[in-house]
Amino acid sequence: MPIGAGYAPAGTSSAGYGVPDAAAVPNNAILPAILTGLPQTGRYINPQTGDYVFTSDGRLMGMDTVPQLVLLALTTTLGSSALPALGETFTLIREQGPNFGQQLTATVNAALADLVRRKFVKVNSVTTQQSPSNPDAGTVLVKWSDLTTGLSYTNTVGQ
Predict the structure, then answer these.
(1) Which segments within 1-158 are labelled E, that is strand?
(2) Rounded CA gap, 86 and 83, in Å?
(3) CA 137: distance to chain centroid?
């Protein structure tokens, strides 16, 4: 803390003397990333709850645009949003027949078709897993690459 102007005449010292304290630089980044704190282009959506996530100081957390678009495409039911082509149709698959994996792959590809066509996303693989607790349910692991950044991601859909 700088020493006050108590020993200096009012006309010869600006506001005290000594070494000024170093203050922490406030992080005013809008939509900061979870790991880096750098500004992002979209709001972070918790994949498990679907809720926005906040920082400890009350700001919205951020995530890149393409991962957010993929998450929304894989978790929004087709026809339930303002964008008529946004969403998935997993609930239309009623039985786990011999082509269950192909049906899920086709559904994932249809949900991500717009992002693939706009060259934002490349779908690397779609893997189907049967749920051990519920033989009538399944999960889908979608491995994809963000063509705007070159990063690879994995999204899990289902229970």
Answers:
(1) 42-43, 62-63, 121-130, 138-146, 152-158
(2) 5
(3) 25
Sign of the CA dihedral 98, 109, 50, 81? negative
Q: Is residue 46 part of a domain?
A: no
Domain limits for position 97:
64-158
pLDDT (tens place) for every residue of the chain, 159 residues total: 455 555 555 555 556 556 666 666 556 778 988 888 888 999 999 988 989 999 888 889 999 999 999 999 999 999 899 988 898 988 888 888 888 889 899 999 999 999 999 999 999 999 988 877 777 778 899 999 999 999 999 999 876
- Give whole-number Cα distances, 30 to 22, 44, 56, 60, 132, in Å: 24, 12, 14, 8, 42
pTM, 2 dp: 0.77
Report the CATH number at residue 81. 3.10.450.40
Is 123 inside a domain boundary? Answer: yes
